[in-house]
Design a protein that fits this description.
The complex is a heterodimer. By secondary structure, chain A is of the alpha+beta class. Among the domains of chain A are: about 50 residues, Uridine Diphospho-n-acetylenolpyruvylglucosamine Reductase, domain 2, CATH 3.30.43; about 100 residues, CO dehydrogenase flavoprotein, C-terminal domain (Enolase-like, domain 1). Chain A is built from 10 helices and 14 strands. In chain A, a hairpin with a 6-residue loop joins strand 13 and strand 14. Chain A is globular. The N and C termini of chain A lie far apart (about 50 Å). Chain B is an alpha+beta fold. In chain B, the strands form 8 sheets. A 7-stranded mixed β-sheet of chain B has the order 3-7-1-14-11-12-13, sandwiched between helices. Chain B has a 5-stranded mixed β-sheet with strand order 9-17-16-15-10. Chain B has a 4-stranded mixed β-sheet with strand order 20-28-29-30, with helices on both faces. In chain B, strand 11 and strand 12 form a beta hairpin. In chain B, helix 11 runs parallel beside helix 20 and helix 16 packs parallel to helix 17. Chain B starts with 13 loop residues before the first helix and ends with a helix. The chains are: A alpha+beta, B alpha+beta. Chains A and B meet through helix 10 of A and helix 4 and helix 21 of B. The complex binds flavin-adenine dinucleotide. The site of flavin-adenine dinucleotide has 31 residues of chain A, from strand 2 and helix 7.
């Protein structure tokens, strides 16, 4: 780890002002390993842990609002979230391991746009809104590519707003080693239409429109039988080829649909 | 007695391990200490043109920076190989020399090329970035296949075709004859995949030099401090043995890889003396991946000949073993002597021949990993037996039963020279089949099919050679030193007992097991017994812990020393109680005159020995301390049966182990709880190798691609089932405790049991074989290929 300046502001405004080309630090689960391995060299780390306005889980009207500094374990164990959006609590409970869940935050995960992170699938399938220090960004235009987002330099994610939909489920095939998503599929039945978002498989989260159409017609696992998922452009690593991931997209979608059906 | 042999005494060392109050090498802080950072080759093969450390020297906090030439100039020696393997033609193997810091050529990614010593690790790392390195890349080679192919890049100029040695064992003619009259020949190509150990505590070193006394003290996370001391003295550092003290305090796992002599201990000692300051180094996890010795990495062709009654009549094995870029300390011993001598398995195979080619590649040197050679042998024999059963349409359990060595055949001598001590192999098989409800399997398979799952069952009947080792046998086969064990038992005046052992505990629980042996023998409570290990200044010379040797050898040395204590106690008692020595007995912790109530409790005797007024000190020396050494006449041969039952999800290729049964014969058992734990741990490592641990080198660049825990999958608690364990006790006749050793059995038996089960599950889907590790991706690919072929 190279040396850096460390600041711990107590408000969003101070945090944005202090950044000065550095990095925000939330759970540190991604940032600290890259510092330790000398892959990143920020001048300044702005620790968000002291900013009260970034935490908290609230229900505002028809929206579930989660502060950016909320830990995965808090999302997983929140009685409110389990009641109004159980799929999200389940997703958070399946991230990494207990240590990672106790430190990692929803804001850090969303801002990082890791190709194998879980939250992006929920954000896109649920059509969430990403709130920052300066604007609101719909999830559909937030994730732009491999580790890239619509965030401007120095823009801070403050909270995420989700619609409250019970008929949703997330099915994840974890990487055997890291437990990140090799492929994770979020299926949401909004009542007006089905939305399917896939993480882990490509450079960043994407929707599977062919599946959505088929599921709109017939919301059942077998509805997607026969729809070929192209392997082109999908990720390749030691644990999976593009073809394997293409297969997992179908398998995990069927499992998520079955899980939605099983919900009461 | 509650703490004697056979009691599941809670581990005394766990208090400090669980509460975080243990003392590992990294916990030892020395005044004035400095920190070393090792600069490692990032290219797998190349000629060193320049390693210029001068800019690093002026960086903040830097105390010194060195390259390989600096060590050479100070006449620092090499990291020796302690085993000489002979070629088939009678010539000695090609012997590469492994420098402590490379100076002319690098041969694997991770090889040390420079060192920076600074006030902090961070400063050392900052400075390391200023070192100017120029290496002219040479073509590199990582796999056996590529290394032995014509025109392959040459790793060592002296090793033609990258062959370091070509060794053999067994007579070829009887094997040829057996195959000529065989009714059936089963054949198979097998990969024993490369393993990266990942001990929980990474390797660590802290060295200091006392100028006044002219003495080194080296704290080292090691399995065998005395061995490290000899190697430092004679080969690498070059300093009188008696002026080096090696202390291996609490060590968080070894599994073989901490038995080797490494670069960092030599660098730290040398620099500590040069700089007049303690020098320390602790490996990081990513560093461990490319610098700890790797394990396994064999490719084998095996053929088994059977007669018309399905009896095994001949076995032919040809193995290529990847040795890495250099020979590690025990490197050539593992795929030769410690491998091929066990190829008979638990079967009387009258004719066996094996040849082994040691292949040099641009990879981390390969050495012992839990089981060390014996898992590779068990894998070969237990997979080919399943293949034979499959060829013949026989039940694999039945084929094994027909061929097991019968109880009345012991001691049984195999054509490879091993003499098995004792065993009840068929009983182990029966028990394991009952424990796993083998009979009911087909019904369970059918039920799984209704859920869309492929269910399989697999077994392995393993054997291993433990209690390493009879010095004569080892030295006749290439070993560079003896392998006996030692113990000193010191009885304090107040009756407490300190046992100093030459073995070393790094997770095995010796402080408990050995104390139980003493408690049992002397009938004194555990609290009065202290086991000391891991310090060359406090313990008698011993070979440390590896090869499941500690209880069979170290424990026996303790028994021998205790026998001397008791004999002396009887002598003293005879004087004190004025009775004939022959009439003194030692029972229930009391020296007494037979048939009378006259006697001395052990504590009284201890005091009397140190207050020598009542016995003649010209005849009997005062004090009560004895040392014993034990060199066994033979290895011990634990054996047993594993049965693995698993389900494969054909949609994803994922394997779920649903049941796992183990029956072991470890001879007598001192602490059943500790033994259960050893079986659990070993089995989990075997399962890890079979299903998860995928070591991948890039074929062209020989870069390690699976170089972190995000890429290399270690087994975790939720990857493994609850184990059903049972035991058979056939004591070993070769040591006073009748014990055989239990540390490696799990890792030896599990891989073939799991892989046999995987193949059993996949065969109905048209997949005939699959190599380790059977990852979800590999299984899914195999299923797709079978579907396409159907
Ligand atoms: C072993 C391991 C396993 C994991 N497994 C999973 C998994 O299964 N699924 C999964 O989804 N994730 C997984 N993760 C990732 C983890 O859960 C975190 O979500 C992730 O590391 C980012 O969150 P963080 O709070 O730790 O962010 P940090 O590491 O603190 O920051 C990450 C990046 O986001 C920026 N950032 C942080 N907060 C904000 C903000 N509010 N606004 C703008 N930018 C910000 C930082 O500057 C940095 O660049 C795993 C991590 C580890 C180490």
């Amino acid at each position: 780890m190279y040396s850096f300046n460390y600041v711990r502001p107590s408000s969003v405004a101070e945090a944005v002002k202090a950044l000065n080309g550095g990095n925000f630090l939330s759970g540190g689960m991604t940032l600290l390993p890259s510092l330790k391995m000398r892959l990143a060299r920020p001048e300044t780390l702005v620790d968000l842990a002291g900013i009260a306005e970034l935490t908290g889980i609230t229900i505002e009207g028809d929206r579930l609002c989660i502060g950016a500094m909320t830990r995965h374990s808090d999302v997983a164990s929140s009685a409110d979230i389990q009641r109004v959006l159980p799929a999200l609590a389940e997703l958070a409970g399946g991230i990494g391991d207990p240590l990672v869940r106790n430190r990692g935050t929803i804001g850090g995960s969303i801002a990082n746009s890791d190709p194998s992170a879980d939250y992006p699938a929920a954000a896109v399938a649920l059509d969430a809104t990403i709130v920052t220090d300066r604007r609101e960004i719909p999830a559909s235009s937030f994730f732009t590519g491999l580790f890239t987002t619509a965030l401007q330099a120095g823009e801070l994610v403050t909270r995420i707003k989700f619609p409250m939909i019970k008929r949703a489920a997330y099915a994840k095939f974890p990487s055997p080693a890291s437990r990140y998503a090799m492929v994770g599929v979020m299926v949401v039945d909004t009542g007006k239409g089905v939305r399917v978002a896939v993480t882990g498989a490509g450079p960043c989260v994407f929707r599977q429109e062919a599946f959505e159409k088929a599921l709109d017609q017939n919301f059942a696992p077998q509805a997607i039988d026969g729809i070929v998922v192209s392997a082109e452009g999908l990720n390749q690593d030691l644990f999976g080829t593009p073809e394997y991931r293409a297969n997992l997209i179908s398998v995990m979608t069927r499992r998520a649909v079955a899980a939605v059906q099983a919900r009461r | 007695m509650g703490s004697g042999i056979g009691a599941s005494v809670l581990r005394v060392e766990d208090q400090r391990f669980i509460t975080g109050t243990g003392t590992y090498t990294d916990d030892i802080q020395r005044p004035g200490q400095s920190h070393a950072y090792i600069v490692r080759a990032t290219t797998a093969h190349g000629i060193i043109k320049k390693v210029d450390v001068s800019h690093a020297l002026s960086a903040p906090g830097v105390i010194a920076a060195y390259n390989g030439a600096d060590l050479q100039a100070d006449k620092i020696g090499i990291l020796p190989c302690g085993w000489m393997t002979m070629n088939i033609d009678g010539t000695p193997m090609f012997s590469p020399t492994m420098p402590v810091v490379a100076h002319d050529r690098v041969r694997y990614v991770g090889e040390p090329i420079a060192v920076v010593i600074a006030e902090s690790v961070h400063q050392a790392k900052d400075a390391a970035e200023l070192i100017e390195i120029e290496i002219d890349d040479l073509p590199a080679v990582a796999s056996i296949e590529r290394a032995i192919a014509p025109g392959a890049p040459i790793v060592w100029d002296g090793a033609k075709g990258n062959v370091g040695f070509h060794w053999h064992i067994g007579a070829e003619a009887p094997v040829t004859a057996a195959f000529a009259r065989a009714a059936h020949i089963a054949k198979m190509d097998l990969v024993n995949s490369r393993i990266i150990c990942n001990s929980m505590e990474p390797r660590a070193v802290c060295a200091e030099f006392d100028v006044g006394k002219g003495e080194f003290t080296l704290y080292l996370s090691s399995q065998n401090p005395h061995v490290q001391r000899i190697l430092l003295a004679t080969a690498s550092l070059g300093f009188p043995e008696h002026k080096i003290r090696v202390i291996s305090p609490d060590v968080g796992g070894g599994f073989g890889i901490k038995a080797m002599h490494y670069h960092e201990e030599v660098i730290a000692c040398w620099a500590a003396r040069k700089l007049g300051r303690p020098v320390r180094w602790t490996s990081e996890r990513s560093e461990a991946f490319i610098s700890d010795r790797h394990g396994r990495d064999h490719q084998t062709h095996v053929e088994l000949a059977l007669d018309k009654d399905a009896k095994f009549i001949g076995l032919r094995v040809s193995t290529h073993a990847n040795m890495g870029g250099y020979y590690s300390t025990f490197g050539p011993a593992i795929p030769t002597f410690f491998y091929a001598t066990l190829l008979s398995g638990t079967y009387p195979i009258p004719a066996i021949y094996c040849d082994v080619t040691g292949v040099l590649t641009n990879t981390v040197p390969v050495d012992a990993y839990r089981g060390a050679g014996r898992p590779e042998a068990t894998y070969v024999i237990e997979r080919i037996v399943d293949r034979a059963a499959d060829d013949l349409g026989m039940d694999p359990a039945e084929l094994r039963r027909r061929n097991l060595i019968p109880v009345d055949a012991f001691p049984y001598k195999t054509p490879m020279g091993s003499e098995y001590d004792s065993g009840q192999y068929e009983l182990a098989l029966d028990k394991a089949l009952a424990l796993s409800d083998y009979k009911g399997f087909e019904a369970r398979r059918a039920e799984a099919k209704t859920r869309g799952k492929l269910r399989g069952i697999g077994l392995s009947s393993y054997i291993e050679a433990c209690g390493a080792a009879p010095s004569k046998i080892v030295m006749a086969n290439g070993g560079g030193s003896g392998m006996f064990e030692s113990a000193t038992v010191r009885v304090n005046p107040t009756g407490g007992v300190i046992v100093m052992t030459g073995t070393h505990s790094h997770g095995q629980g010796h402080e408990t097991t050995f104390a139980q042996v003493v408690s049992d023998k002397l009938s004194i409570p555990m609290e009065q017994i202290e086991i000391v290990h891991g310090d060359t200044a406090r313990t008698p010379f011993g070979l440390g812990t590896n090869g499941s040797r500690s209880l069979a050898l170290g424990g026996t040395a303790i028994i021998k020393a205790l026998d001397k204590i008791i004999a002396k106690g009887k002598k003293i008692t005879s004087h004190v109680l004025e009775a004939a020595e022959a009439d003194i007995i030692f029972e229930n912790g009391r020296f007494s005159v037979v048939g009378t109530d006259k006697g001395l409790a052990f504590g009284e005797l201890a005091f009397t020995a140190h207050a020598p007024a009542r016995f003649p000190t010209d005849e009997i020396e005062p004090g009560l301390e004895e040392t014993a050494f034990f060199d066994p006449v033979n290895f011990t041969f634990p054996a047993g049966v594993h049965v693995c039952e698993l389900e494969i999800d054909p949609d994803t290729g994922t394997t779920d182990i649903v049941a796992y049964s183990v029956v072991d014969d470890f001879g007598n058992i001192v602490n059943p709880m500790i033994v259960d734990g050893q079986v659990h741990g070993g089995t989990v490592q075997g399962i890890g190798q079979a299903l998860l641990e995928n070591c991948v080198y890039d074929e062209d660049s020989a870069q390690l691609l699976s170089g972190s825990l995000m890429d290399y999958c270690l087994p975790r608690a939720d990857d493994v089932p609850n184990f059903k364990l049972d035991y058979i006790v056939t004591p070993s006749p070769h040591n006073a405790l009748g014990v055989k050793g239990c540390g490696e059995a799990g890792a030896i038996a599990a891989t073939p049991a799991v892989m046999n089960a995987v193949v059993d599950a996949l065969q109905p889907a048209g997949v005939q074989d699959i190599s380790m590790p059977a990852t979800p991706l590999k299984i899914w690919n195999a299923l797709q290929a079978a579907k396409a072929a159907a």
